[in-house]
Amino acid sequence: MNRDELLFSYLESETKRQNGGIELIASENFASKNVRALCGSILTNKYAEGFPGKRYYGGCVHIDEIENRAIELVTKLFGAKYACVQPHSGTQANMIAYYALLNTGDKILSLSLDEGGHLSHGSKVSFSSRYYNVDFYHLNKNGRIDYEALREKALEYRPNLILAGFSAYPFEIDYQKIKDVAKEVGAYFMVDMAHIAGLIAAGELDNPLKYADIVTSTTHKTLRGPRGGIVLTNNEEIIKKVNKACFPALQGGPLENIIGAKAECFYEALQPEYKEYIKQVKINTKACSDELTRLGDINSGTENHLFLLNTKKSFGVTGKDAQEKLEEIGITLNKNMLPNDDEKPSVTSGVRIGFAAVTTRGAIKEDAIEIARIIDGYLKNNIKKEDAISRVKTLTKSWKQIDEI
Ligand code: DSN
User: pLDDT tens digits for the chain (405 residues)?
Assistant: First the structure.
């Protein structure tokens, strides 16, 4: 059959863009060729509504083997007793978790989007604020969670669920403190570990499964798998509710090609090389943040795979302008609200920078320092555009090309 050549030309252009650029979007990564092979495999042909051993279609014997393998590997990876590997995305995983534990109109206490939370944690434009009542806790002036204020808010608001786990939070989280508050007010404690799942899997950050009733994640960020979501718990009653929320309540046929790819990513994350990779992610992130600080640029510092750079204070430009200017030279990152930002979300006062993706391509500490110097020099107009592009190319040519990963 003929194929749509136009479409495939776009695929080729995107491949060139990914190979030729420095990818600093903190939520992105490069999946291995085995993960990508499973995503594009014949598993996409199969309908398998239901769960292993309890399907609504015949012919699921091998699909059951694959989904059971994914569950076996992910529970081993995170030390969880139970897992649902069917959520199509992180937002779907969160929707499933809320649906499993809450009634419509129940109260959620979370961190707002503009302080580092996520749309699905109660933003006014998300389903989460239409179906649940949501209030927010806040960061202190150092950009860290204000745990005492969180407790006071919880005592006053009496939430049914307290949510931790963020999209733009560069520091470790004290789960014990939040668990204690949840217990005090009789709320469920939920953690969305989407960003930091890889660091947790590698033992480089504390494991929320030790504290939370329910944990959700994506599989494509630091975990380096296919685009998708998971829900984990140690509670047998909760996993029953989660599975019912997933199917038939909120999703239909599972994406078994993606579940196969998730299983491969969990397998890869259990290998010793993955631990080394995550250690290098942390080293690179810190090296870039430290070098920007040395150059006089205001940033959050970091204890994980990302940090926030205040572009207004450092270079006199908004996050939006910094993002667009860096894209001209092949550096991709995203504008991001900073704590107490006075700009709109579409403008912002800063950018978010993460090192999961370039570290997969082989970036080392010296490369992270060079990236900091290019960002600083170009945004201060001290480096000409053609010189910046040439320095970006030198780095990207020295790294693995994406089909080698
Ligand atoms: N879009 C993701 C991120 O960039 O953090 C969250 O879903």
Answer: 899 999 999 999 999 999 999 999 999 999 999 999 999 999 999 999 999 999 999 999 999 999 999 999 999 999 999 999 999 999 999 999 999 999 999 999 999 888 889 999 999 999 999 999 999 999 998 999 999 999 999 999 999 999 999 999 999 999 999 999 999 999 999 999 999 999 999 999 999 999 999 999 999 999 999 999 999 999 999 999 999 999 999 999 999 999 999 999 999 999 999 999 999 999 999 999 999 999 999 999 999 999 999 999 999 999 999 999 999 999 999 999 998 899 999 999 999 999 999 999 999 999 999 999 999 999 999 999 999 999 999 999 999 999 999
166 CA to middle of ligand 1, Å? 9
3-state secondary structure of 137: strand
The whole-angstrom separation of Cα 73 and Cα 265 is: 9
What is the dihedral angle through the alpha carbons of 335, 339, 345, 347, rounded to the nearest 10 degrees?
A: -50
Phi–psi pair at 135, nearest 5 degrees = -130, 165
**90 C-beta closer than 6 A to ligand 1:** yes
> Token pair for residue 376?
């600083």
**Please, are residues 122 and 128 in contact by the beta-carbon 8 Å criterion?**
yes
Q: Tell me, in angstroms, the distance from the centre of ligand 1 to residue 27's CA.
A: 6
DSSP result, 318-375: -HHHHHHHHHHTTEE-EEEPPTT--S-TTT-SEEEEE-HHHHHTT--HHHHHHHHHHH
Residues recognised as catalytic? 47, 49, 192, 218, 221, 227
Q: Residue 112 Cα, ligand 1 centroid: separation in angstroms?
A: 14
Question: Is this structure's pTM higher than 0.90?
Answer: yes
Extract the tokens encoding 25.
Answer: 């979007």
